[in-house]
Amino acid sequence: MAMTVLDKWKQGLDATRTVVEIIALVVAGLWAYSKFAETEKPSLETRGRMESTLKWYPVASPTHCLGQFAVSLTNIGQTSIDIDRVRLRIWVVPFPPADQTNAVTYVDTTKFQDGTAVLDRDMGMRSLVGHYPPNVHSQFDYVFLTRKTGSSVAVVRLDARTPGGRHEFTESRWEEVCGPLATEGQRIDSDQKPPDN
User: Fold this and answer.
1) Distances (CA, A) of 146 to 91, 95, 119, 167, 194
2) Which sign, positive or negative, has the C-alpha torsion 37, 38, 44, 45?
3) Which of 7, 112, 122, 183 sits 20 to 30 Å CA-CA off 161?
């Protein structure tokens, strides 16, 4: 049976329709992926928030004080975070001198972490190591005894790392070593003003 011209046109249109449908599916797939990449994919990135306070407490020894570095980690993303390593470092550095020729001297606090830390400790399985589903929060206090020194700055830094080091969350505070300590055993932290004399 011979094909008529109309049958040939039908066959050609069917083949064209199939090709157009395949192209439409590919275009729709690319569009959907681009929308996912624009809107949804960023929300699936690892997102954590760290916050901290640094407080100083007097101890029985007049030459030392107790420091408390309280750090919290919150998973603010939509995917779980695993923390497998926590590293605590403390630097004690002389406070930079003021420039006597200017009324204001800029202090580059990033320079406080140059050099070797006086304490560098991998916290192992203690502290903030663990699994953090979305919206989970954990807090840990890192407590250390330090010698009082005149005109020195303590920089306390915590790095929390995910497996393989893909992501690292860092929190740090700096303050005068032993900070302002109250005379009657009260603590003064970096969020409070010392009492008026």
Assistant:
1) 11, 17, 11, 31, 20
2) positive
3) 112
How many CB atoms neighbour CB 16 within 10 A?
A: 10
pTM of this structure: 0.69
**43 phi and psi, to 5 degrees?**
-70, -15
Could you say which DSSP state residue 197 is in?
-
The residue to which tokens 């449908």 are assigned? 21
Name the nearest CA neighbour of 189 among 197, 88, 176. 176
Going by C-alpha positions, the residue among 86, 94, 89, 87 that lies closest to residue 112 is: 94
Structure confidence by residue, pLDDT tens digits, 53-66:
999 999 999 899 99
Q: Which helix (H) or strand (E) holds 147?
A: strand 137-147
